[in-house]
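Give me the fold.
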Amino acid sequence: MWLAQLGAHGLLRASFIPPEPIRELRDLTRTRSIATRDRTREIQRLEKFLEGSGIKLSSVVSDLTGVSSRAMLEALINGERDPQVLAALARGTLKSKIPELVDALTGRFKEHHAFMARLHLNQIDTQSRIIESLTTRIGQAMEPFRTAREFLATIPGVSFKVADVIIAETGADMNAFETPGRLASWTGVCPGSNESAGRVKSAHILPGNKYLKAALGTAALSASRSKDTYLAVK
């Protein structure tokens, strides 16, 4: 009843409802985030399955979907079982790890494993095509916000993909948020405040926009690895 009375007198702050172009962009970026997460999970399933067959390729290479890794997996699926031959497919700097690759590619890979590995790779390829299609569409929808996107990308740690999410979730107009603190609170990156007698009982971050929160987390990790920047030092 109290909220109804406040609303009747116009004393409630309006919810943030972005305009239609931003809502459409939000659909695209959120779907891409989900597809990217699904692709990562499928790669993890493939890694776990390969380890079950004794193939420890992920202990040597950093990316199971890289050029060298993919060539080795395709050869395994097509019937090649000689670790020396498989390791010889390494390219670039990975050639210096031939002995480690030979050990990692020595396992019990059989026809059943080839069938299952092919299914996992097909799933990964499908998700990759979806992500590529969404990225193209996002690039078209982002055209009116190109200037804001380029400015955001100058922040250490903020890539163009992170900038896409920031614009899609908050809009290109920051006038919707009265202060930076309100924006941070709406996003859910402000610690909770629960203090009694000088003792902090809880400081968990609050619920908020999970897509924007995840993008900012990615940006923070990237900024921490950057060189000669204030954010990296902080």
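The CA atoms of residues 108 and 229 lie 48 Å apart.
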